[in-house]
UniProtKB/TrEMBL annotation:
One of its GO terms (molecular function) is methyltransferase activity. InterPro entries: MttB-like_sf, MTTB_MeTrfase. Keywords: Methyltransferase, Transferase. GO terms for biological process: methylation. It is an enzyme of class 2 (transferase). This is Methyltransferase. It comes from Ruegeria spongiae. Belongs to the trimethylamine methyltransferase family.
Length: 504
């Protein structure tokens, strides 16, 4: 899929091949704390697990911890340092995520960079239809938009399809991911029956045997601990189910400073790190070598209202600390952007970009909520996805860049153009600008007078036309019609059988 916003300037110009699938972060990681403080934080997290303990609600998970050597007292589990260190050693440091086509495969490891749009929101919004509870139509349209841009690498749970009953919702959402995209899909962890359905849908749609499916990760889930210090039943079961099947879990404690975590960055990250280590340990007790991604989602709250805040100095600092901890473990890791703004305005742009730079400077592998997220995760905006994508594409250009060649240094052009001349028509320029010129998605580089004479609108309204064109005219990947029919038959049969209710 050619990246939108990149247009050839003449019929003779060579076509520029856009490849944003193998991005590497070009920025040196930034540290927030000294290395001795990071080690102290890591050791404090181990003390939390060993001496204070973590509450694990699923009996099967407690049994696995006990078999691994943990002390279990009722629902409290006390995990020794040696168990945690063994889990860190067995967890893979590089994970190859398989997509529908080899060119969509992703390698997750430190130094790589993968973007996802905003996810997990109960509401969708756009300037045409307004703010509303998320529907399966909203989800399908956002999958189409995710598919249309090379800089978005994985399909997340964009919005919740609340117009589909919960026992059938996973069929509708997985069907949309598989048929409208060829990128790495997401599955919810809402109990073994739903997970088993999802695995079967992906396995059959990809044409895999059971052994082939379990040999490599073809999908992922997101595991949120219930802070402070609780792994609830669905999340624990999800960790076990995905580990047993060889599929990836992204472990993401959600620790808001002053609310479900200590009010300081160091205290919140100590708790977040401890919870992540507990979940990672459970995956490795289930199946050593199971793919698992370290994650964090730590920011602060407005202490007057309790509302979460994003794109703040504390959010930025927490991301940097998480990066240091991930490098201490050697694991690929997930960070997040996002905004607490209510609409796609200057506040939303500033918060999202500041949070994004925190992720980049921290060396994050997977950056979720990098486009479209509003209201602290309550809403995904169609227009904001488009306006945020312009920034992501600029970042991707930095990451996909190549070293300057002798020709790029342009001595011939410097000889050709006389003093006080210009380079618009220089041979060096004409050979390159058709394929290197960056044309923004929603910006406009004309002067103000020309812009107003044309009756142009602002970025938000220009974004409407872009997402509407993708939804109305975008083409789905050319999947095997027989597999599409088989997927439909499976969903129809399971729907007639009553589906699979989520487990609590």
């Amino acid at each position: 899929m050619i990246r939108r916003g990149r247009r050839a300037r003449s019929a003779e110009a060579p076509t520029r091949k856009v490849d944003y699938h193998n991005l590497r972060n070009p920025f040196p990681p930034m540290n927030a704390f000294t290395e001795d403080r990071i080690e102290a934080l890591h050791q404090a997290s181990l003390t939390v697990l060993e001496d204070i303990g973590i509450k694990v609600l699923l009996p099967e998970a407690r049994k696995l911890f006990a078999q691994g050597g943990a002390r279990v007292e009722d629902e409290m589990v006390f995990i020794g340092r040696d168990m945690v260190e063994a889990a860190i050693a067995s967890a893979p440091k590089s994970i190859l995520m398989k997509a529908a086509a080899p060119e969509r495969d992703l390698t997750l490891e430190l130094g790589r960079l993968v973007f996802q749009p905003g996810a997990g929101a109960p509401h969708a919004t756009d300037l045409v239809r307004g703010r509303r509870p998320g529907t399966i139509r909203d989800f399908r349209e956002m999958v189409q938009i995710t598919q249309a841009f090379d800089v978005l690498h994985m399909v997340p749970p964009l919005v919740e399809a609340q117009d589909v009953p919960v026992e059938l919702r996973h069929y509708a959402m997985t069907e949309a991911e598989l048929t409208l995209s060829d990128k790495v899909p997401f599955l919810y962890s809402r109990g073994t029956p739903q997970v088993r359905d999802g695995f079967q849908m992906i396995r059959d749609f990809r044409g895999l045997s059971d052994a082939e499916f379990q040999a490599q990760p073809w999908c992922y889930t997101i595991i949120n601990t219930n802070s402070p210090r609780v792994i609830d039943m669905p999340m624990a079961q999800g960790l076990i189910d995905f580990a047993r099947a060889g599929q990836m879990s992204i472990v993401t404690p959600f620790t808001l400073m002053g609310a479900m975590a200590p009010v300081t960055v160091a205290g919140a990250m100590t708790l977040s790190h401890a919870e992540a280590l507990a979940a990672i340990t459970l995956t490795q007790l289930t199946k050593p070598g199971a793919p698992v991604c370290y994650g964090t989602f730590t920011s602060n709250v407005d202490m007057k209202s309790g509302a979460p805040a994003f794109g703040t100095p504390e959010h930025f600092t927490a991301s940097l600390v998480a990066g240091q901890l991930a490098r201490r473990l050697g694991l690929p890791w997930r960070c997040a952007g996002g905004s607490a703004a209510n609409i796609n305005d200057a506040q939303a742009a500033n918060e999202t970009q500041f949070a994004l730079w925190g992720c980049l400077m921290a060396g994050a592998t997977v950056v979720i909520h990098s486009a479209g997220w509003l209201e602290g995760g309550l809403t995904v905006s169609f227009e904001k996805i488009i306006t945020d994508l312009e920034v992501l594409q600029m970042v991707a250009e930095l990451c996909a860049g190549t070293p300057a060649s002798d020709a790029d240094i342009a001595l011939d052009a410097l000889r050709e153009v006389q003093p006080s001349g210009h380079f618009f028509g220089a041979t060096h320029t004409m050979e390159r600008y058709q394929t290197q010129f960056y044309e923004p998605l929603v910006g406009d580089w004309s002067n103000f007078g020309t812009w107003t004479e044309r009756g142009e609108v602002d970025a938000n309204h220009r974004a409407i036309g872009i997402w509407q064109e993708i939804v109305e005219n975008g083409t789905a990947p050319a999947h095997d019609p027989d597999r599409i029919a088989g997927l439909s038959e499976f969903i129809a049969r399971r729907t007639q059988e009553g589906g699979a209710a989520p487990e609590s």
